[in-house]
Amino acid sequence: MELNLNNKTALITGASKGIGKAIAESMANEGCNLILTARSSDKLNELKINLQKKHNISVKIIAIDLAKKNAVEEVSEFCGDIDILINNAGAIPPGNISDIEEDTWRNAWDLKVFGYINLTRQIYNKMKNIKKGVILNIIGSAGQKPMYNYIAGTTANAGLMAFTKALSNGSTANGVRVLGINPGFTSSDRLITMMKGKAKEQFNDENRWEELFKDLPFQRAAKAEEVADLTTFLVSPRCNYISGTIIAIDAGHANH
C-alpha cells in the first residue's frame, strides 16, 4: 500500500533507540524526510548514516535533552515547518507511591509529560498557521490499566491520553490531526535488561527471562517494529479522517 509520505517531513523524539528508532526506520522506508532528536549524538549520527545509505531521504539530527529549559524552543526553531510530530522521548521508572520520591517523579515528568506538552505547543502553533499537520503521541497502556507498582507512569500516561483527546477536540478545526498509541510491553534493550533482573531474582537464572511473558497474549511482548508500522500508517494521508483516537497495541492485555 502506498502511504504517500514521500516529501513529507517528520520530527521524531527519543529516536536513538527502541520504538523511536524503529519508527524512524519505518518512515524512512516510506520515503519520509526525518528530523531526529534524542540525548545521544553518537547514536543519532549512526542512525542518520544508516538511513541515508538505505533510503533517498533527508535526515537531520539534533542531540538535546527535551527536559531542559528552552530545549523545545530550540528544537522547534531547528525544524522550521514540518508535517508530522511524533512525541516518543521519555521513560518513567517503576515503583509504588512509597518508592518514588518527589524529585524522581518530577524529573521523569519533565521529559515525558511536559516534554510532550511543550513541544506540541510549539509545533501545533506552526501547524495551525498553515492549516495542516499530524501530531502522534506514543503514550503507554498503563494509562488504560492503572498499575500500583508503576504509579508515576500510570498517572503520566493517563494525563497524556486526556491531553491528546482534549487537543484533538479543537485541532481539527485548524486542519491538524492529533492521536496516540498505547504500547504495552514492548521488546527493547531496557525491557530485556529489566526482565533478566527479574528472572535472576525469581528463577536464579537470567536466561529464563522470556518465561516471564507467559501470561501475556501470544506469550511475548510487542515488537518495536509493530508499534512503528502502526505509527507510520496512522500519520500517513491514508488516515486523514482519524483524529482523537488512541490505539492500544498490547494484544488486548489492558482489557484483562
Main traits of this protein?
256 residues, Rossmann fold, 7 helices, 2 domains, alpha/beta, single chain
Brief overview:
The protein has 256 residues and is α/β, with parallel strands linked by helices. The protein contains 7 helices and 7 strands, in the order E-H-E-H-E-H-E-H-E-H-E-H-H-E. The relative contact order is 0.15.
- The CATH class label of the largest domain is Alpha Beta
Total of helices: 7
Could you give the count of β-strands?
Answer: 7
- Fraction in helix: 40-55%
The domain tally reads 2
* CATH superfamily caption of the largest domain: NAD(P)-binding Rossmann-like Domain
Question: Which regions have little confidence, pLDDT < 50, spanning 5+ residues?
Answer: none
CATH architecture of the largest domain, please? 3-Layer(aba) Sandwich
| C-alpha-based Rg, rounded | 18 Å
Structural class by helix and strand composition:
alpha/beta
The gross shape turns out to be: globular
Briefly note the CATH topology name of the largest domain: Rossmann fold
SSE succession: EHEHEHEHEHEHHE
Major sheet: 7 strands, parallel
Would you tell me the overall average pLDDT? 94
List the strand order in the largest sheet.
Answer: 3-2-1-4-5-6-7
Strand residue content: 5-15%
Assembly type of the chains comes to single chain
Ends distance: 33 Å
